[in-house]
Design goal:
Blueprint: H1 3-14, H2 39-45, E1 54-57, H3 59-70, H4 74-94, E2 96-103, E3 107-116, E4 119-128
Antiparallel strand pairs: 1-2, 2-3, 3-4
Helix pairs in contact: 1-4, 3-4
Length: 130
């Protein structure tokens, strides 16, 4: 699969999908590219100060957070959780070493980074956690 095909499929998976949080921010495919996928590079492309906290969690941990957050949304929450499961399953079949970075403290950029045959691929959203 070419990079353009992968990006197109990712965009289909995230179309209208948002992360349950205080902001309900949508998932996006960033326009910036990564060459290393490490935290220092993320801070640079996100234009965040170098002292900004960066925590790494596993993709299943993010899925568990999404499922927990979706509980308060009733039937819509079940659909949102299922779409996230579908998205994460797609990621795991198209790339290797998927990593989830949480950048910041109250306003948190959540960036999912994976390695594919086409290079590094990322998805991004934001969560406000007060």
């Amino acid at each position: 699969m070419t990079g353009n095909q992968l990006i197109s499929q990712l965009k289909q998976h995230i179309d209208g999908l948002w992360l349950p949080s205080e902001t309900e921010a949508p998932w996006t495919v960033p326009t910036w590219t990564l060459t290393t996928g490490d935290p220092a590079e993320l801070l640079q492309v996100l234009r965040r100060p170098t002292q900004t906290p960066v925590a790494e969690i596993a993709l299943p941990t993010l899925m568990a957070q999404v499922q927990r957050r979706c509980q308060g949304y009733g039937e819509a929450g079940k659909a949102i959780a299922q779409r996230h499961r579908d998205l994460f399953e797609f990621l795991e079949t198209t790339g290797d070493r998927w990593r989830v970075f949480r950048v910041g403290e109250v306003t948190v950029n959540i960036v999912v980074v994976g390695e594919t045959a086409a290079g590094y691929v990322a998805l991004q959203t934001q969560s406000v956690e007060t």
